[in-house]
Amino acid sequence: MPAFEHPDYKNECKRLDTTLNYLKNFDEIINTQKERIDEAVEYSKSHYNSDNAEQFNELVINEALQVSMKSRLKNISRSLSKPYFARVDFTEEGLDKMGNYYIGKMSLLDEKTGEFLIVDWRSPVANLYYEGRLGEASYICPDGDIHGDISLKRQYTIENACLKEIFDIDITTNDDFLQAALGSNKDNRLKDIVSTIQSEQNQVIRADMWKPLIVQGAAGGGKTTIALHRIAYLMYNYEKTLKPENFMIIAPNRFFLSYISEVLPELGVENVTQTTFEDFAFNVIGKNIGKKPKLNSPHEKLSTIIENYSDKKSKENNNIIEASCFKSSLEFKELLNKYLKYIEYHYIPKEDFKVHDFVLFSYKEIQKLFLRDYSYLPFSKRIDEIKKSMINKVKYQRDKILDRVDREYECKLDKVRASMGDCPERRAQIIDIIDERDNLLLNIKKGLKTVIKDYTSKIPKRSVWQYYENFLINLSKLNTDESKCKLIDYIKDYSLENLKNKNIEVEDLSPLMYISISVYGLSEKINLRHIVIDEAQDFSLFQLYVLKKIVNSSSFTILGDLCQGIYSYRGIHDWNDVAKYIFTDENSSHLCLEQSYRTTIEIMNAASEVIGGLNDPRLPKAKPVIRHGDEVKVFEKDSLSDIAKDIDNKIIKMLQSEYKSMAIICKTLDECMKLKSLLKEKKNVSVITGKEKDYPGGVVLIPCYLAKGLEFDVVVIANASKDMYTESELDVKLLYVAMTRPLHELYIYSLGEKTKILPI
Ligand SMILES: Nc1ncnc2c1ncn2[C@@H]1O[C@H](COP(=O)(O)OP(=O)(O)OP(=O)(O)O)[C@@H](O)[C@H]1O
Asked: What is the residue with the minimal CA distance to atom 16 of ligand 1?
């Protein structure tokens, strides 16, 4: 209700004023402190003396303080326009006093009273707002479970520091606040949802960080949004032990990253790596790759598959799909393991480490160090460790060896001396022996200087690329499964042909990363403790396996929707496979986000019927939130230009409306281009090709596989004819993805008869 109509309006205004005044005061204090730190940093930099360790330490500390104050000021400035969004009144069991907890994006402590004016949405007590109902409730905090009673749950709309609306939540009311949030129009960036996080989402956000968490979420269920809120939550809870660079979120492509780029900063979180699998892979392999390859776009392969998919006889398509599936599998990883075992066994030279005849380490000893004692390290790092032992050995054996030589020659000299009296022959023999000894000592001394270098120079120095090439060459030999011979030959031939042209495909990245970390290890700059993967249904088991090896723990959040698995030929079909094959030793948690928040009941029901056509029990049905809109409209037209004419009108109408975004979704990029050439409104339309780094918003013409993950006020599916979308799994999933993109309106065109999979 409008705030001024609420009986508690005056008290709430007073509270808001108090909070704002405190915040302003706090802002000034921090600003003054920051000015002082800025000056100190400036001074240290302009009077820098590299010999002064104390000054250096001070500079490092002040710079860290500078960063933290900057982010604090940003949070305060955000809170100044909207300090909190909800309140919970909770009386703890055994205590008389009721606590009024105002929940916002940061906490604010009144230092005089010692009470919180605002509590952070991520704090334990704030859980009461997300999970608790009026009456008996409890929350978990580090001291244990706190039981008590909730007497009030209230939500606020505050705009520019002005109280606009107040909603009291009782057991029966619908969540008006959520409805208002869902009904609004979206621009070109995803937004935070701290004030309306729902209970099932809250459980995902607050789940244990150290256990693998697998989330199957409906289209529009908030997976992407929740993934980002979870990072903010984990960072808040592990603020003292973990840094932003310990977290990473992987999203499908760069322009999707720009679409989600505002959420973490809005939540006060900076410097978390937000990347794509492809970019991360190149970062991991780094210079060890040895060549600069060109990565074939995964979309091109999908486009080829899409175009030929309905043609069951397409042998080439079957080959592409089977090869892609096998290269992404753990079986392929096993072949690579076999190869790496061979490399490991032959990595060190088959010889003793010795100077002259003095064996410092036998081959067996080095082999034991390499294959057993240091087996937990990557190959090249094992050599670094062995080198350290060698250096020590040389250092401590040097004098002993020289002494031994001396002693041996003393014996020889004694023998000569004893064998005859002094005579020219004896003198000549003695001189020869002494010369021989001196030469030998010189050689040994020289040898001791270069022995380690000489030894390590015999270790082959191959780049990751060379290892991979060699692995592919030997692929048929490594394979023992006769039924796979043809497929293996096909993979070998086309992959080697690709490498010859310096090309690689996404499926090559996991093996390349695997080789790189097995042989060279990880750069120290990569220090990840938790990875969040969005759209994980499109990840292969091999990709997940490599990522797990990199994190070296099971601290993962994996979110996806099997119904949208358009890369299912290489992706995941069943979340149980992930739990079973990737996190074998840990018991992973599975959560489900059934509710869909994006779209209207009418649109969601139509989309659910489409995916339901696959009759696959592994594909759960989404439950739409109660929000009604227009029925989905389907138009059959005789020509593409008729479709384009209609779409032109829709674009004009949308541009004149309050809507901010519209997508015209085609099956492929070619189809997008064809349609664009027919549109009169083309100047108002941007075509998304997948190469963009920024998501432009407005009206876009976009292939379906790139629209995945995004949302728009209005969606037009350009041609859902019966030829375009068959009953194949891929076509059904593609249409489902397209139909679940709109927030408010969905129009479907068809050139001629519409597809049978559309129920409308
Ligand atoms: N609790 C919520 N309160 C308000 N809005 C929400 C809530 N949960 C989700 N939304 C909204 O629903 C929409 C869909 O969210 P999001 O894109 O994160 O879902 P998704 O599961 O990743 O979808 P998809 O798999 O279809 O790409 C967004 O506009 C988001 O803001």
From this structure: 222
